[in-house]
Amino acid sequence: MIKKRIFTPGPTPIHPDASITMAGPALHHRKSEFKEIFRQTLANLKAIYKTTHDVLLFSSSGTGAMESAVVNLLSPGARVLVGSAGKFGERWEALCRQYGMRSTVIRKEYGDSIGADEIAAHLEKDPQIEAVFVQGCESSTGAAMDLQEIGRVVARFPNTLSVVDAITTLGAAPLHTDEWKLDVVIGGSQKAFMIPPGLAFVSVSPRAWEKSRQSQTLRYYFDWKREQENQSKNQSAFTPAVNLVQALHQATRFILQDGVDDLVANASLLARMTQQAAQAWGFPLFARNPAPALTAIAIPPPLDAEALVADLHKSFGAAVAGGQGEMKGKIVRIAHLGYYDAIDLLGLLGAIECALSRLRRGHELGAGVAAALRVLADSRNTS
Ligand SMILES: *Cc1c(COP(=O)(O)O)cnc(C)c1O
């Protein structure tokens, strides 16, 4: 008997309420029943974002919303600052390059974070930089950035917008869009939102709207203004992924029952359990400032991280992520964001113990699980 389980930092497990609604009859996207679902879903997204500004919804993967930020905010030749310390930072670089922006890149080693002080130093040198692009969590390395500080620094520069890929931050780490003065915050459905891939979100501050009116970059599907005009009437400009919106409606209701802070605390607990397990196994964490959304564990040679990933999949039906690019074979990544609980994680850590006892001699079976259990038991005694 093997059950399939997914532990990757996107896609993540689907909430049962979302699965049930997706199996129901098709709704038409211009009829009142769907419009009401759409309206409530946008309102729920704003509550999760902690914003009173617009949150636009697109039927695309997260990268679509990232691209929408570049084309709606900037004209070709605009000077921008990009923080890059992993595969998703490199995606910001590629997007800005593709649209002819002139980028300055703060490049850090994989596993490092981008510091607000480094951003401040660049902006002081060149206050005409029009936008700063960062991740809240660089999912390829498991590193967290300090978005509160980054928001505070960028807000000091009246000509500069902060644009955050928060695809693995929303619902996984604290995020206060308005209070932290983040101009554009991007989310994706297949991460903490507990539904399949196919929807992306983008919040737009008044300052970002102002800027978007001046952008000369060509755009059609991802035009924010047309989308906002439609969404203010509880519709989208084009046919949305109707069943995914219904799923998101259910999932956001579930999230808001206990509140997004509860979901964030859950990810944080699972992250701490995993971090302690890694330490007990003698494996370092890959990120110097690890994020709660996922834990990237460095697997030292002669062990091969890909062999561990393969054994977990074959013997236990558990899909964990390996490393991308140069990190392949060197790390495994375990997700905590979204619909996971302690039993899910304890099962996975147990399976990793089994796999390790096959892959390395003298593995002390149970040390990692015991360390994780101590974190769990402590948290239950104090709450
Ligand atoms: C998953 C993810 C994305 C989005 O990727 P898509 O495949 O386009 O949905 C972007 N940034 C980060 C940090 C991610 O984790």
Strand order of the largest sheet: 2-10-9-8-5-3-4
Total strands: 13
Distinct ligand kinds: pyridoxal-5'-phosphate
Order of helices and strands: EHHEHEHEHEEEHEEEHHHHEHEEHH
Category by helix and strand content: alpha/beta
Distance between the termini: 36 Å
Oligomeric assembly: single chain
Percent strand equals 5-15%
Structural summary, described in words:
This protein is an alpha/beta fold and 383 residues long. 44% of the residues lie in helices and 14% in strands. The protein has 13 helices and 13 strands. The strands form four sheets. It has a seven-stranded mixed beta sheet with strand order 2-10-9-8-5-3-4, sandwiched between helices. It has a two-stranded parallel ribbon with strand order 1-12. Strand 6 and strand 7 form a beta hairpin. Helix 3 packs across helix 4 and helix 12 packs antiparallel against helix 13. The longest helix is centred in the C-terminal third of the chain and has 22 residues. The protein is globular. The two termini are 36 Å apart. The mean pLDDT is 98. The protein binds pyridoxal-5'-phosphate (PLP). The site of pyridoxal-5'-phosphate has 13 residues, from helix 3.
Compact summary:
This protein has 383 residues and is of the alpha/beta class. Helix content is 44%, strand content 14%.
Name the descriptors.
single chain; 383 residues; alpha/beta; seven-stranded mixed β-sheet; two-stranded parallel ribbon; 13 strands; binds pyridoxal-5'-phosphate
